[in-house]
Structures are given as C-alpha cells and as structure tokens.
Amino acid sequence: MYGNNHKVNAEQKEIDLYEQNKRDMDSFSVIIRKYAEITKLMISEVKMLTIFNRKIIFTSFSMEEQANIRNLLDNHGIKYYVKVVNRRSSSTLDHSARARTGSFGENPSYTYEYIIYVHKKDFELANKYIYHL
What we know:
By secondary structure, this protein is α+β, with helices and mostly antiparallel strands. The protein folds into two domains: about 1-45; about 55-130, 2-Layer Sandwich (Alpha-Beta Plaits). Helix content is about 55%, strand content about 15%. It contains four helices and three strands. It has helices at about 1-45, 65-75, 95-100, 125-130, and strands at about 55-60, 80-85, 110-120. It is elongated, with a radius of gyration of 31 Å. The protein starts with a helix and ends with a helix.
C-alpha cells in the first residue's frame, strides 16, 4: 500500500512539474511574440536621421517660416530634424569675440538660424511639398 501511494505521489509531482513547465513556456512564448511585434513596429516606424543619411531641405532665420515647414512635413508624415544655431553665441574658436564686438548694429531677427534636415530618401518628396507652391 505504502509503495503504491509513494508511486502515485511521485507521478503526481512529475505531472505538476510538467504542467508548471508548460505554463512557463506559454508565458515565455507570449512575451517573445510581443517583443517580436514591438521590434517589427519599431523597425518599420523609425527612420533614424544621422549625419550620413540626411540632407538640408530648408534654412531660415524666421521662426514662423520654419514652423510652417515643420507643420507641412508633419502633415505629410515626413520625419525631420531641426538644428537651431544661435548666431550671437560665442565662437568655439574664440570665446571672447562676443565680449569684444557686442551686438551693436546686429539685426535681432538674425539671432537664430533654423536648419531643417530630412532623410535622403524623403528629400525629393519633401522638396516637392515645400517648393511646389
């Protein structure tokens, strides 16, 4: 009797272990599928702009103009990068230049330059939307 009871308990433990492993594998499979879907989404949605794959599409000193161009690109789903250059900031080569020259006679509307970049693959399409007015 004791031997049969011990054998039944051992088999039940094996069954329990098998079922727990199956649940763990099912959970793991769900996580992997979600990760794979996220990775596919990220790869298809992201077009990273780097210095190697971008082109300048527009430059301006006007905040309003650059905002209009950005809205136009957004409306057509074209990814872009905006670089803002402060023309009044000190030079990287000569930090004392601004202190010597000041800003007398400078037009304040030329303080910031806006440079808009798009992916090289999107350049022709963006160019069409921007300059086909």
